[in-house]
Amino acid sequence: MVFKQISLILGALLGLGAISLVFTGIPRGQETVTQLDYPPFQAVYILHEPDAWGIDIALIYERGEVDNTYVEGLAHYVEHLAWANVFSGAQAGVNRHSNAWTSATTTMYFQSSSYDGVQAAMQRLVNTAKPLQLDADYMTKEVDIIQRERDQRRLDRKTYDATESEMRVLSGDSVFARSVIGTRQQISQFDADLAKKLHGQTHHLNAATLVIKGDISVSELQSFLNELEYPTLQSTSETAMIPEEFEAPFRSEDTVSRPDMPSALVHYNHLFAVDGCRSYADCDARVDMVWRILTSTRDGGLVSPLQYDAFLARKMNVALWRYWRDAFVLRVEMHAETDIATSTALAQLEQTLKDIANTGVSVEVFDILHKDAVTDVKTDELYAQDEYDNIVNAVSHRRPYYDAIEYYQAMAALSVDDINEFLKALNDDSRIVIRRYNP
Amino acid sequence: MTTAVSSYAAIIPKGYFMIKLFKYVVIALCLITLTACQSEQNREIVELETPDGHAMTFMPITEKGVTDVTVRLAWATDWSMDPDMNQTVPYLSREAIANSGTADMSLREIIELFEDKNSYAMVAVGAEHVSFEFEFPNNYQNDVFPVVLDFLTNNQPEQRWLDRLRTNLKTTQAAHNAHVSATTFQMAARAVLGDTPLFQALFLENLEAFDDVTLGDIADWKQTHIHNKPVSIVVTGATSSKKAMDIVDRLLAELPDPIDQVQPIDTVFEIPAGKIYVNLPEAEKTFMAMIGNVPATDYTDAFQDLIALKVLGGGVESPINLAVRQELGASYGMFVELFRYNMRTRGLTLGGEVEGAKLADAFNSLSLAYDDFVTQPELPAFDETRNLVADEWHQKTFSVNGSARMIETNNIDPITPFPGLDVWDYVQDQTKFLVMERVKTAFPNSTDMLWIAAGPKPSDWPDACVVQSLDDVDACLQQ
Question: pTM (2 decimals)?
Fold first, then answer.
């Protein structure tokens, strides 16, 4: 199976920077989203929200752990240091309204502020691009903090390491197999010089998008941007080689004894490609619809044959998400009933998935669930925060931003054929990782 | 935007003026038209009495895009005070009721109908109250309401579902109890509450009790708790007061009279001072906490507490994080929060996961930082912190069901803050001076608090009394 890059979409994404002052045209309530071309940023989005009580700002570098060529987890260490670099000597209490995050594909910094504090808050975000000038002791001590963070996130969570291990196998030898937080041993290898080097390679404003939400106009924002002090610009940083192909077919199935996990569990992970999406919004709408079908009690879903009628699974969780561009992951967690072997539960799960892929969903079920989906998208209580999250989410996944109206239109335009085409992919061999715990 | 407006914003957020302006416009329109809109003003909370005589609280939401209506009922319970009761029954009843059909509809049919109509119904259980909530878009009321009524009155749990739900709850609770942090709080609660039914109800330590629950127990619990004399009735959302009262009367007309008189729960538990280390040889990490009583007399106090805690523990440069994370390097982050064992027993807890080898130093640093804050509270960036707290409350109370839940909380517990739409007015009244005074006078000193940690190595904290099990806790406190 070959997973194709959607190079045209990538090209369109990169090309957005050349469009100056594009009104994306989203009058919903009184909010509007405007995209500005304002070098040195890669892009600037402003979501004008009249009556907002405060201002939220995000600076998102489209560089994450996949762009780190050093020891795994170093990008996360760099995020800690870059943020500390900004706050050293700052007014106490200011960073109460801040946050930072590293993912596989991005490093993000967030600030909340009153209107009067916007200039300073934006300056702090921009200062994350300044060279790291923390003293050596601080940088060494921060490694301990990262160890504590890792312990907090990983230890004492019985299924977390199992899930992480499965996702690593599913990702094969691609950059997505890299751990964002790293192992204890990897963290102990963090080095201040390496961190400075990686920071210099990744924290460039020309690879960063600024997103701002609040009662602030485009002209006011431009005034703020004009007043910012920008770090000396460096050349554009290189992004990682994100694979155009994943090795497939691939199937890894194993049984694992884990007395610390409370019951007989089946984890089924399937990485597969889907061609033919009309747009990102269209593709995400398909994912939403397929998830609704799979988790529905109606024909075409997993719930009735496995849980409600057959009593094979006493509990099930189904997740479906975009892995990268046109690649998706279906993950099913089945807690087998006490008198059901995990092998039986797995066999029935795989057979049910094949049946769903081969038969598709009926027009009747599609119509019911599609109507629900369109209603949800249309009548959900949409707030500016949702749109802000949409922008941040799009940028952090390095894909074009689409607004709620475009998503609604994409959802409304879906047909049963679109969905059945997507469902067929569930039958692909592609990459499958299965673990049966305490069989 | 002019300079004058932006400088104003430092004192009072701009949205405040828009809300005020909006109110005046609505009032003006009402006066002009002389319609009934005075009683249906958007997000105005009103107390009503239905034609059948039920007292209820109503808050209409007449905003563009809002179509949902939430109905929420709460009943008092004293189940958690009765030593003869199996404390797992309420939890299993909640699950069994949510996962059963009726005489007329299968579980699948009910699920699919709710799914189709963007609706839901749920039961929530607590130590002092049981709640039932359902929500539906107003154009589906005629489709959903009869099913909700059937669901509530003719619910028929099945044995095989009960067995499945029993296993689910046991395994989920066992996994929760296995966390070092959960063990810490369970032990702390045991130190405060003793081996009481309330302790079992809140912490479900005895998982074997799930095995004893029968379908008869579920039916008895439901009959005892779901009746026509709730202590709180709330309707919020896109409907009128007339329709809201009609829903309530029709619903309660189908429910039985109460069987028992519920005894009010007014026990106040004192959190004792002491130092306890819970020895968990298999634990992978160490968790620490300091716990003390913080009484609240009204929601003014509660709001001031929230602002103070945001300063004390919010962000890596807050006093407790500076001490334990930044300077000692012992933790990724310290937390501080308010909690309650029951309505009369309110406390604060601060702590977090720490490196075991630094546990004793972490307690020392944490207590020093905390005591400094309590004796000489400094409140930097006060205005922003105050607004942040207000914003969080605004978010919580903004949705249709969020509003209903907060109003219910206010109905059954008058000391919990619910300033409603006037959150900004309310918060602006909480000055820096008031918050500082509140901290100085109401927050306990660290020496009066229970210090407790759990981990694999008792030698990490030589000062503590070491316990292995719940039964050791009492003896430890008597030392």
Answer: 0.86
